[in-house]
Amino acid sequence: MTERASTVTAERNRTLALASAFLRGVAAAGLGLGCLAVLVMALWISSPYPDSGPAGALRAAAGVWLLAHGAELVRTDTLSGVPAPVGLVPLLLVVGPLWLAHRAARDAAEPEEGRARPSQAGVFCAVTAGYLLVVAGAAAYARGGPLSADPDTLAFPVALVVAASAAVGVWTAAGRPLGPLPSWSPLVLQEAVARTLFRDRVEAASRSAAVGVTVLLGGGALLVAVALARNGPAAQDSFLALSGDWSGRFAVLLLTAALVPNAALWGAAYGLGPGFALGTGATATPLALAGDPAVPDFPLLAAVPAQGPGTPVTWAALAVPVASALAVAWFTVRRAAPADAPRARAWSAGETALVTGLAALGCGAGTALLTAVAGGPLGSRALSAFGPVWWLTGPAALLWTAVLGVPAALLLRMWRLRESGWAWRGDADEQKSYAAPATPSASSVSADAASGRPGAAGGGADAEGFAGFEPYDFQPTDPWHEKSARQARWASLKRQSGGLMAQFPAGRADASRADDFPADASRADAFPAEKPAGESGDGPGDAERDTVRPPGGGGPSAGAETDGPGATS
Predict the structure, then answer these.
(1) Which of 120, 155, 199, 484 has the fewest CB atoms within 10 Å distance of its CB?
(2) Rg of the chain (C-alpha set)
(3) CA–CA distance from 244 to each of 42, 239, 241, 288, 555 (Å)?
């Protein structure tokens, strides 16, 4: 009966955990949609000439929220009457939904107080299902509005983006483990992941690849900033021409800020060489801007270079991939030949080249993925291709990083491994510590301290052979187990007895503890007991009379029973 009750309780707790995870997914999606709807409604209310009622504004907010997940929208109110696709996703809007889905899955996977940890697969499915339920409702509500979602893009990439965010949240709650792999994965891969060396190399390659992508993004943002500074008047005129009221200009400013990551990726693609497409008939590269570009009137697009062949100013953009390759090489060599480790722990040249190549591969894959979402169609004709071409930008990043990064990593490794260099100055100290004489045992230190020999305190001739050795007070657990410790203890007892044990032979220290006193000597003879307070002889004047005298020392208290060993009774 008790076993059945516990089973029912566990099943109920599991059901409650899954229901809580489902509600977390719904709440995360609703929070993101609600925040964006509040912002859109505020802009609609402040607009002096709204184009539609509140229902149209809410439908537009739902469409923009779906666009933040990667869905492609369809704009119906065009001048030609032909619906136009809108697939350019402002990447800054993507951060909010992704973070909310990740946070919901992470919180649901963590065990609550008083409850068992729910299953990771159950949490992932529950959070994803709850989030996608709100996505389906928003897509149905946005139908008939100015920006409706294409149903084909709800499965890919919207559902994939939500599932990936939830999976990363569950993985984070589990501590971000790197293994073990599922049972259906190849056995060779499972064995490789189980090795610590493999995980270390993969971690180093992943970090270096992330650094390379970050440097590319930073360099692209720098290129866009410099171009906007050179074409500042054109960008200002474009900003002022898009809207005449402050609410419209504020909306343009928000959209510009949301597209800043896209502009950074466009600049990175420009520096890598393939550039970006300005419609179906033009491509901007550092070498030239050829064709007839179809550029809408927007402030960020004022950074597009002028038509014609490139100049030394545009050629300087090629420094961005060079900096990325050098950053990958530097961060790889920092792990391959760390400055605070001995030379023997450094990676070989082959390992360094292999890890740098893997980092270059990761940098290329990350760049291709980011540039694939940085662009998209803005129309059905000339603007159907707008932005970087991912299948050209990714291989370009891989080629730049591999061709420059691998030789740079090998050269940096050779430089850090040179015999006379600041990076390896710790090797001599470490080798010196390995070659230092053995530390004296605790028993010998105790014997020296007990015998009072010079040098026992670390400043005598006996301590000159030990480099930097500082003796300390240390006693073994049982000093009677070692011969030297027994000798030290015996000498200490002789001094403390006031000469009583002076006639005992030195060889007695090698005997067992039971033979430390003669058979004809009682314990009271060697260690006189203290007299209780109040008896005669306790006063200061009787101190000498109460003191045990050594044999032959005389005195009033020296008798047959108190003369110690060797006295005749």
Answers:
(1) 155
(2) 41
(3) 18, 10, 7, 35, 120
Instruction: Supply 329's token pair.
Output: 């090489």
For residue 87, which of 372, 369, 283, 292 has the smallest C-alpha distance?
372
Of 401, 255, 384, nearest to 326 by C-alpha is: 401
* Separation between Cα atoms, residue 47 and residue 44, nearest integer Å: 5
Count the neighbouring beta carbons within 10 Å of the beta carbon of residue 164: 15
Please give the Cα distance from 504 to 483 (Å, whole number). 17
Q: Write the burial class of residue 158 (CB in 10 Å: 0-12 exposed, 13-18 middle, 19+ buried).
A: buried
What is the rounded CA–CA span in Å between residue 270 and residue 392?
Answer: 11
* Mean pLDDT of the region 307-319: 92
pLDDT at 76 (0 to 100): 83
Distance, CA of 274 to CA of 288 (rounded, Å): 11
User: Which amino acid appears at position 193 of this protein?
Assistant: V
Residue among 428, 470, 427, 405 at smallest CA distance from 213: 405
Q: Is the pLDDT assigned to residue 326 strictly greater than 80?
A: yes
Is the preceding omega at residue 180 within 30 degrees of 0, hence cis? Answer: yes
Collapse the DSSP code of 168 into the 3-class scheme (helix H, G, I; strand E, B; otherwise coil) and give the result. Answer: helix
322, 404 Cβ separation under 8 angstroms: yes
Interstrand relation of 282-284 and 73-75 (parallel, antiparallel or unpaired):
unpaired
Residue 230 CB neighbour total at 10 angstroms: 14
Angle between helix axes 2-46 and 91-109 (nearest 10 degrees) is 160
pLDDT band per the 50, 70, 90 thresholds, residue 66: very high
Question: Would you say 363 and 272 are in contact if contact means Cβ atoms under 8 Å apart?
Answer: no
Does the structure show a pLDDT above 90 at 104?
yes
- The gap from C-alpha 350 to its chain's centroid, in whole angstroms, comes to 26
> 67 to each of 85, 205, 464, how far by Cα in Å?
11, 33, 77
Q: Which two tokens stand for residue 181?
A: 């792999």
CA-based angle 276:281:284, to the nearest 5? 30
CA 169 – CA 347 distance, rounded (Å): 34
The separation between CA 403 and the C-alpha centre of its own chain, rounded to angstroms, equals 28
Residue whose structure tokens are 């996505």: 135
**Nearest one of 431, 411, 366 to 206, comparing CA atoms:** 366
Determine the residue type at 240. L
Q: Which two tokens stand for residue 501?
A: 């044990």
N-to-C CA span, the chain? 85
Which residue type occupies 483? K
Provide the pairing of β-strand 288-291 with 308-309.
antiparallel
